[in-house]
């Protein structure tokens, strides 16, 4: 994997770069649609490629491990072959999902014992097994196994959790060094900075993570319920410590304005279920603000969903028709909303990149944020 | 509307023709995907046009009347404008849906009083109101308001019902003559032959319907539970009576082999929810036979869904992946199965047409039917 930092904004920490993996290049800053079980919900791979113009998608290790399972993924020749997505893929480590199981998991030094949400069967994830699983899935970028503490967390718990994450990271690095990619192409590990909302811990964690000298770095444990101001504070602090010439990935974030604010702090990569999950519930993100398409006010609004987002879903269907589809419970409503939202997210980060390259990002961002937050 | 009968098969009653409406031409025999509430379930209009290559779709008057309702449809300028489908549209009369409500409707000479399945509100459909509603929806081909008796029906009930359908037909014709299309384009009425599974009644009804000299004719009340042999017998009998130079539409039919058998009897047009509804449940129709994709046997079958159906869904996704999508409850599974099935249906009737034009239909049909029925 290679990362070229092309430019940094004069009036913010925003950066434009180019990330190159075995399955192709990614222009940063980038947003990665989430394909939990190997499918970005309600969107075909053709639509993702040609309409959304996604450059990289994410898969969830926890979900893929349970279903279809490693036997099928291995027989298929990895996730790229299985789902037919030949551009880059990133997999998370399963840590976040496993910790979300709350009552159905137990954390030990060795790893985490958890029960499947599907059939209640018991499984053990260790840093080593999670590396092996990600080898079998075959993503281009793979994530270290971390513990993601909830918000709020006590300082002592957050510190212990962070230290465990650091010890697990070293086991991940060791395991990867001892094993080979399953399908011949390079797989690059990103470690994850934790530390909850404590500046002291985030500083320690970012310093520790930076010291591992991995090819890219991630920030986890944010956007888990804390106020946005705290997220930005932690993110800014960590970005100052993480190496400049390596990509920075803020996990699980967020709204369109969250993306723009965090880009200004030096983030290069994002993923979030928001454009698809909220889309399936009728929430649309547009250049003019946020639309709840289920609202009665759109019933006879025959203007297109969003003229400014260049996408067939946004330009060829009206708000009235989309509202009708949601009112009638038609699957097509979820499809169109998902495609529109993802297209908008990809075009938003593309526009951000152009502003960074033009040296005008900070002013553009300041003007855009309140507009994106408008409730239409 | 114009219908050119191009050729009739030497060894069967199969015909190839060209139907021309205000929104374009339709090659017959044709299959019409069902877009109940203005959307063919789980398929975008772009996919319908470019991948499925649908030439005409169907809308359901009952559903569209209830939701989005006539006010919205009228404000939109009709269904073509509302859903963005600029090719031909046919609407049913709501009769079949209303009679399916069973306990929640009451049939009188005037019309049918029924309760909405959505909110229980009471409504009256009369031949006149149904013509007015179809004017407002704006379909190119509109259907007469008929009573569709259940199977089995007593002879006396079936006869009375048929007679009511004939009286209602005359009221439909009168109403249409008194009113104008709402959006300037021609709307053509198809009357419906009824008579349950009684040859005597079907003969009377076909004769009565033919005497109205409408531009096209339909056969209703079949594929409602009767044995396939009875459906073919009734259909063949009616086709012998209906005028040769007008299109014949067999409503609500059916399986791929039902299509081929009825084409051999002289049918030109079909509609059915089967490719989409069964697709959403994991049943795939292919040139080699029928697949239940949920079956464990497909878990590691990495061959494409159907090599012989020319469609991105059929050619670019594997059976193993599609099975996984159904196992995981992913919407994408329903989308791909629907697109594949519809593409297959459209390519099946296209192949039938080519065989008719080549004069080889009967032999081809005889070879195809058992193959299509194979359980894979």
UniProtKB/TrEMBL annotation, chains A, B:
The answer to whether the entry has keyword Glycosyltransferase is yes
For molecular function, the Gene Ontology terms on record are:
tRNA-guanosine(34) queuine transglycosylase activity
Q: What is this protein for, i.e. what is its function? A: Catalyzes the base-exchange of a guanine (G) residue with the queuine precursor 7-aminomethyl-7-deazaguanine (PreQ1) at position 34 (anticodon wobble position) in tRNAs with GU(N) anticodons (tRNA-Asp, -Asn, -His and -Tyr). Catalysis occurs through a double-displacement mechanism. The nucleophile active site attacks the C1' of nucleotide 34 to detach the guanine base from the RNA, forming a covalent enzyme-RNA intermediate. The proton acceptor active site deprotonates the incoming PreQ1, allowing a nucleophilic attack on the C1' of the ribose to form the product.
Q: What is this protein called?
A: Queuine tRNA-ribosyltransferase
What is the species of this protein?
Answer: Chitinophaga rupis
Tell me one Pfam family matched here: TGT
Give the enzyme class: transferase
Q: In which pathway does it act?
A: tRNA modification; tRNA-queuosine biosynthesis
One of the GO BP terms on file: tRNA queuosine(34) biosynthetic process
Catalysis: reaction(s): 7-aminomethyl-7-carbaguanine + guanosine(34) in tRNA = 7-aminomethyl-7-carbaguanosine(34) in tRNA + guanine
Read off the SUPFAM superfamilies from this record. tRNA-guanine transglycosylase
* Catalytic residues as annotated in Swiss-Prot or TrEMBL: 92 (proton acceptor), 271 (nucleophile)
Gene3D superfamilies recorded: Queuine tRNA-ribosyltransferase-like
Q: Where does substrate bind?
A: 92-96, 146, 194, 221
Provide this UniProt record's keywords sorted from A to Z: Glycosyltransferase, Queuosine biosynthesis, Transferase, tRNA processing
Can you give the residue ranges of the tRNA-guanine(15) transglycosylase-like domain? 12-371
Q: Which family does it belong to?
A: Belongs to the queuine tRNA-ribosyltransferase family.
Subunit structure and binding partners:
Homodimer. Within each dimer, one monomer is responsible for RNA recognition and catalysis, while the other monomer binds to the replacement base PreQ1.
Name the EC number(s). 2.4.2.29
GO CC, sorted alphabetically, is:
cytosol
Give the region (RNA binding) as residue ranges. 252-258, 276-280
Give the top-rank taxon of the lineage listed in the UniProt record for this protein.
Bacteria
């Amino acid at each position: 994997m290679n990362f070229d930092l092309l430019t940094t904004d004069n009036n913010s920490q925003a950066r434009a770069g180019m990330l190159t993996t075995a399955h192709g290049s990614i222009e940063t800053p980038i947003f990665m649609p989430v394909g939990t079980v190997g499918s970005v919900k309600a969107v075909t791979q053709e639509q993702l490629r040609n309409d959304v113009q996604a450059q990289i998608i994410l898969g969830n290790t926890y979900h893929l491990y349970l279903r279809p399972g490693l036997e099928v993924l291995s027989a298929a020749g990895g996730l790229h072959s299985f789902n037919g997505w030949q551009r880059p893929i990133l997999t998370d480590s399963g840590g976040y999902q496993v910790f979300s199981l709350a009552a159905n998991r137990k954390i030990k030094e060795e790893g985490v014992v958890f029960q499947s949400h599907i059939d209640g069967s018991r499984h053990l994830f260790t840093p080593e097994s999670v590396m092996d699983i990600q080898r079998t899935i075959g993503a281009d970028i793979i994530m270290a196994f971390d513990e993601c503490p909830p918000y709020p967390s006590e300082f002592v718990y957050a510190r212990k959790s962070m230290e465990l994450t650091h010890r697990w990271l070293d086991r991940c690095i060791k395991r990867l060094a001892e094993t080979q990619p399953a399908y011949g192409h390079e797989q690059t590990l990103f470690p994850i900075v934790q530390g909850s909302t404590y500046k002291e811990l985030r500083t320690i964690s970012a310093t520790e993570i930076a010291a591992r000298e991995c090819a890219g770095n991630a920030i986890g444990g944010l956007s888990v319920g804390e106020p946005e101001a705290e997220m930005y504070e932690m993110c800014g602090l960590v970005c100052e410590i993480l190496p400049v010439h390596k990509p920075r990935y803020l996990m699980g974030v967020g709204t369109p304005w969250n993306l723009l604010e965090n880009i200004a702090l030096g983030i290069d990569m994002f993923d979030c279920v928001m454009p698809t999950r909220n889309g399936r519930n009728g929430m649309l993100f547009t250049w003019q603000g946020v639309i709840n398409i289920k609202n009665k006010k759109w019933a006879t609004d025959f203007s297109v969903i969003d003229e400014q987002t260049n996408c067939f879903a946004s330009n060829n269907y009206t708000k009235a028709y989309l509202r009708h589809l949601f009112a009638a419970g038609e699957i097509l409503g979820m499809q169109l909303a998902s495609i529109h939202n993802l297209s908008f997210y990809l075009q938003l980060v593309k526009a951000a990149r152009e502003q960074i390259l033009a040296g005008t990002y900070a002013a553009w961002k300041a003007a855009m944020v309140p507009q994106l937050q408008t409730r239409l």
